[in-house]
Amino acid sequence: MQRWIWQQDWPELRPAQEAAVAPVLAGETDVLIAAATASGKTEAAFLPICSALTADPPQTGGFAAIYISPLKALINDQYGRLDELCEHLDIPVARWHGDVGASSKSKLLERPRGILLITPESLEAMFVLRGWKMRDLAGALRYVVIDEMHSFMGTERGAQLQSLMHRLDLAARRRVPRVGLSATLGDMRAAADFLRPGSGDKVTVIVSDADGQELQLQVRGYVETQPNLSALDRTADVDAEQQTGEEDSGDRSAIADHLFTALRGSHNLIFANSRAAVEEFTDLLTRRCDQAGVPNEFVPHHGNLSKDIREHAESRLKDRTRPVTAVCTSTLEMGIDIGSVSSVAQVGAPPGVAALRQRLGRSGRRGGPAILRVYIREPELSPTLHPAEELRAQLVQTIATIELLLQRWYEPPHEKALHLSTLVQQTLSLIAQHGGITPNDAYRTLCVQGPFRLVDAATFAALLRDLGEATLIRQETDGLLLHGEVGEKVVNHYTFYAAFAAPTEYRIVSGGRTLGSLPIEQSLPEGALLIFAGRRWRVLAIDTRAKVIEVARASGGRPPRFIGGGPEVHDRIRTEMRRIYQDSTVPSYLDATAQRLLEQGRAAYHRFGLEAQPILAYGNDTLLFPFRGDSIMTTIVLTLRTRGVAVEPQELALALSGATPQTTADLLRELSESELPAATELARLIPDQRIDKYDELIGEELLARAFAARRLDVPGARNAINRLAEQTALARFA
Fold first, then answer.
1. pLDDT at position 563, please?
2. In the chain, pLDDT over 70 holds for what percent of residues?
3. Where is the Helicase C-terminal domain (predicted)?
């Protein structure tokens, strides 16, 4: 290992790498390594792991180390790095995911050894299909490494990963040390407890702050305006306008103009907040290349594009001989090695502090500054503009996110979720692995010793009854749980291995080449025009049986509508927004338009009197401004509905239909003096509580409890209502 380090011409180990050597090499404790992107976290884990495996080779068959990654592309990338590292160490490195051929997997099963790189879904499939062999596969297991750990925390996929790691311990018949890697962790205690549930205090935590690089930042503001397109743009859009009655807005064109001027000629990433926005801006930028008569430098990258199109974008980014900018979603947030990019652009308010930090980490990897440009659109002021929009909430939310980023605060994981959907999956998987299991053994494995510790025995028993009623499981006379008729079909389908639901999709095909896929809910008639994979297409034919959409190149088009909502806004971001409204300091990173928009938002905040009290009359309605996170806002909405109030969230406000400011203030006082309904009772007011993959198999009572634990915050709502009542106590309304 020392020879390899010298061959790399490293003058020294980086701080995280040096700190990780002793605890990882000892192999006696779990280790959490939190360090900036491109700080060498992979080597921090595997230099000592490979050293340990070389000094003391496994004496039995089985994989010695398992590396678990959230992305197949990241596995492919890390495979090259680790294969080079282990080339002269007699430590084989192997990949296992959906794109790896069956013959390669068969060879691995015949002689499992060395380091295995795998996704949670493929590891799940291994337990289900080869449960009888797991003891042999894990017989020599010395380390489990989890990359991009932050992407798992607080999610159903994360609960699945925790369960799989525990089941690896059981298969190996010992506590296998875990090494977690992440660039974006705020609450180290919560992260350590995720890595080893129930024993986070015993995890060795390594935090490297050696990322004090220079940050060059600008937030650019744009006012939504009518289109002012060139003749070429208007010609290209004419078909789409006839079909949709829309055309590119002037502000979106202005953003595209600036992106084109600022980014052309270098390597960059443009993060858009949706797949539709990725397609829209790729199209706008591609057309600008055509207009300028220069080679196209802008390529799309999102999860609905085909593998070869995504890999083409990634290879272009790695190629330093030709400039390229990828317009992407979160697919390029994580650690796929695409080299250093000159800058990162964010179109729209960032989805969160942690996500912004992860995106920013892509820039400034070669010792230069990290460069971030953020583009924010706000509506034009008019007499009919909603008061919440006058507050310029998108801009202020962006400023709040940046300020919290500079304070090194990141969203903590959701620790109260029950993850019942994933518990259903893991119960069925456990039955498949062992050919049947008793309820007590399942409960002990998954809940008492495993990650589902918030699920008590009564809740687990109720869940088993629900699964029995849905014929997913059945119970023999000796108490053994087996798959039921429906359970057999569910487990034997390839979609079972993922803890998250994937919608049924149509393939989009042009000339025999698959461009990607669209959700089946997307309605596209023959002759429709769309933008996909950064190009404009006309739908030629739709095969509903084969689920194929045949397209050909066209001059017009619009991005398709994709399914999926935005992330929840954390309470800390909303309280930071209130502070910004009440402050007079103007951040130096705002351009002139953004400064003017901030000034307008602050002026509206004071004109509405929101610094003193949170109630505003608006026509026949009353607007309530709690300035709290989405889970608290949702809880307040449901609490008001229990009092017969018609209320809907609108941007930063809650709109109480037909209520006066005085009746709203009286209601807040009454609520502050009484007990709020239980979270489960409030959850029952939600018409459809099914969020996760197997929620439709869970009974109404457990579904309400799961929804309440995940989406509602009664203590937070109580605190917010008390504060709102105090603010309105002395107010007098006309």
1. 64
2. 93
3. 255-407
Beta-bridged to residue 552, according to DSSP, are 538
How many whole angstroms separate alpha carbon 145 and alpha carbon 27? 12
Contacts of 350 (CB under 8 A, 6+ apart): 356, 359, 374, 398, 401, 402
d(CA 543, CA 450): 45
pLDDT at 242: 42
Cβ contact 293:312 at 8 Å: no
Check residue 173 and report its DSSP letter.
T
Q: How many secondary structure helices (H) and strands (E) does the chain include? A: 27, 24
The residues near 291 (Cβ < 8 Å, ≥ 6 apart) are 230, 232
* pTM check: above 0.85: yes
**Helix runs in 275-369, H state only:** 275-292, 307-318, 353-360
Residue 28, class by beta-carbon neighbours within 10 Å (0-12 exposed, 13-18 middle, 19+ buried)?
exposed
Give CB contacts under 8 A, 24+ apart, made by 427-430. 427/463, 427/464, 427/467, 427/473, 427/481, 428/472, 428/473, 428/483, 428/487, 428/490, 428/491, 428/496, 429/124, 429/127, 429/128, 429/491, 429/496, 430/167
Q: Which run of H or E residues covers position 481?
A: strand 481-483
**What single-letter amino acid sits at 718?**
R
CB 101 within 8 A of CB 72: no
Distance spanning both ends of the chain, measured CA to CA: 78
The mean per-residue pLDDT over the stretch 219-237 comes to 65
Radius of gyration of the chain (CA): 27
d(CA 223, CA 254): 10
What mean pLDDT is predicted for residues 438-454? 96
Tell me how far the alpha carbon of residue 122 is from its chain's centroid.
20
Q: Are strands 548-553 and 115-118 parallel, antiparallel or unpaired?
A: unpaired
Dist. CA 425–CA 432, nearest whole Å: 11
- Per DSSP, the residues of 124-145 read HHHHHHSGGGHHHHTTT--EEE
Q: Is 476 helix (H, G, I), strand (E, B) or coil?
A: coil
pLDDT of residue 551: 93
- Looking at residues 508-523, what average pLDDT do you find? 84
To the nearest whole number, what is the mean pLDDT of the chain? 90
Q: Which of 85, 75, 200, 66 is nearest to 140 (CA)?
A: 66
**Mean pLDDT of all residues in 552-576:** 85
Query: For residue 363, what is the DSSP state?
Result: B
Nearest Cα neighbor of 185 from 437, 313, 354 is 354
* Whether the Cβ atoms of residue 594 and residue 392 lie closer than 8 Å to each other: no
Which residues, including other chains, have CB under 8 Å from residue 366's CB and lie 6 or more apart?
340
Output phi, psi for 612, to 5 deg: -100, -45
Question: Residue-wise over 689-710: b if at least 16 C-beta within 10 A, else e?
Answer: bbebbbbebbeeebbbbbbbbb
Round to whole Å and give the CA distance between 584 and 581: 8
Half-sphere exposure of 605 (CA within 13 A, CB side): 23
Distances (CA, A) of 143 to 119, 135, 156: 16, 15, 23
User: Which stretches of 134-185 are DSSP H helices?
Assistant: 134-137, 156-172
Q: What's 354's DSSP letter?
A: H
Amino acid identity at 355 = A
